[in-house]
Design brief:
Order of helices and strands: HHHHEHEEEEHE
Strand content: 5-15%
Helix content: 40-55%
Radius of gyration: 23 Å
Strand order of the largest sheet: 2-3-1-6
Distance between the termini: 45 Å
Number of strands: 6
Largest sheet: 4 strands, mixed
Structural class: alpha+beta
């Protein structure tokens, strides 16, 4: 109930104005909230474990379904990781899933509005969208999945940049290209549950990109 109350207060605070400002106080509030949710998730797991062994008929039935037919016999699982290693893997998986969905939400709250471009090209095609993305942007934002190249980008500034020369004030305009979402360089696998942008050509779809591709990607 505490987490629910805090999340409600946070949402009201962030969304109360027509054009919310992303202040340092709100950054700290959101960071604190994310940490509490992760800890709360772990506590739910601990409470579930306690319930499984509380001796009631319902919990005994569940426990039997877990251990029946030799499911927990030594050697039945080829995974040789220790209990501590398995706990660490679970924690990392939880954090990666959580940050993979909250980082896009933060981008939306700060009006970054990042989105995914489906290039329509295979993963071996080098720099397929130079009309819309610089090579540096493609290097920084690419991911490969299902044999297709994707880019996680956002719109920065105006659609065009124009320069005008007197005396006739003749103007020349060029289309601006999509940009790297702010903070993407921080996704190097060291923080945020190990989320990182995949190297060029690697058949990996980062969690954060997966969160976006749950919705239809933009095809250029």
């Amino acid at each position: 109930m505490t987490l629910i109350g805090q999340s409600t207060t946070l949402a009201k605070d962030l969304m109360s104005s027509k054009k919310p400002e992303w202040t340092p106080e709100k950054v700290d509030s959101f960071a604190s909230y994310m940490g509490q949710v992760i800890k709360g998730w772990a506590q739910v797991n601990a409470n579930t474990l306690y319930w499984i062994f509380n001796g009631t008929e319902e919990s005994n039935s569940l426990l039997w379904s877990i251990i029946s037919d030799g499911k927990l016999l030594g050697g039945s699982d080829q995974d040789k990781k220790s209990g501590k290693e398995q706990d660490e893997d679970l924690q990392t998986s939880i954090e990666k899933s959580f940050y993979g969905y909250t980082i896009p939400m933060l981008w939306n709250l700060t009006e970054t509005h990042a989105f995914v471009i489906d290039s329509g090209y295979n993963c071996l095609e080098e720099y397929p969208l130079e009309d819309y993305l610089s090579k540096a942007t493609m290097d920084a934002t690419n991911a490969c999945y299902g044999g297709t190249r994707y880019y996680l980008v956002h719109v920065k500034g105006d659609a065009e940049s124009c320069s005008c020369k007197p005396p006739n004030t003749q103007c020349e305009c060029v289309n601006n290209k999509f940009s790297v979402p702010p903070g993407l360089e921080s996704l190097d696998g060291q923080l945020f549950g190990g989320i990182k942008v995949s190297p060029a050509g690697q058949e990996v779809l980062p969690t954060i990109l997966y969160a976006y591709t749950l919705h239809q990607a933009v095809t250029i």
